[in-house]
């Protein structure tokens, strides 16, 4: 990634995002029971915060692999429906913002 004529980062999106440790990873989980899901997700290791909107929980985590690993068991044990799952900040726009704006 270049910014103002200087190389700010080099590698794949995943490699670069993995190096930006000071910014928690953001995962969006859609569920009609978002409030209950948020409560359950807060108990997972590495989750440092959650935000709610409509039918989604936006999870901030320092350990996304742990969240992805434990999420299936969490929703099954709690009987929580999940309608969608997406990493919100692995796109080039988000990575570029982390490198030059935030």
Describe, in plain words, how this protein is organized in 3D.
- The protein has helices at 13-19, 34-41, 64-78, 92-100; strands spanning 2-3, 6-7, 25-30, 47-53, 56-61, 84-87.
- With 102 residues, the chain is an alpha+beta fold.
- It has a 4-stranded antiparallel sheet with strand order 4-5-3-6, covered by helices on one side. The protein has a two-stranded antiparallel sheet with strand order 1-2.
- Strand 4 and strand 5 form a beta hairpin.
- The mean pLDDT is 86.
Order of helices and strands: EEHEHEEHEH
Report the mean per-residue pLDDT as an integer: 86
Estimated radius of gyration: 15 Å
The largest sheet is: 4 strands, antiparallel
Structural class: alpha+beta
What share of the residues does DSSP label as strand, in percent?
A: 25-35%
Nutshell version of this structure?
The chain has 102 residues and is of the alpha+beta class. It has four helices and six strands; from the N terminus they run E-E-H-E-H-E-E-H-E-H. The chain has a four-stranded antiparallel β-sheet, with helices on one face.
What is the strand and helix layout of this fold?
Layout: E1 2-3, E2 6-7, H1 13-19, E3 25-30, H2 34-41, E4 47-53, E5 56-61, H3 64-78, E6 84-87, H4 92-100
Antiparallel strand pairs: 1-2, 3-5, 3-6, 4-5
Q: How would you describe this structure in keywords?
A:
about 100 residues; alpha+beta; 4-stranded antiparallel sheet; two-stranded antiparallel sheet
């Amino acid at each position: 990634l270049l910014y103002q004529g200087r190389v700010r980062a080099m590698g794949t999106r995943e490699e670069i995002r993995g190096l930006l440790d000071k910014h928690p990873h953001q995962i969006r989980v859609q569920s009609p029971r978002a409030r209950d899901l948020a409560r359950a997700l807060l108990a997972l290791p590495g989750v440092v915060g959650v935000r709610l909107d409509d039918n989604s929980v936006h999870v901030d985590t320092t350990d996304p692999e742990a969240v992805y690993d434990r999420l299936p068991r969490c929703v099954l044990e709690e009987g929580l429906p999940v309608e969608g799952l997406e990493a919100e900040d692995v796109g080039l726009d988000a990575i570029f913002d982390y490198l030059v704006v935030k």
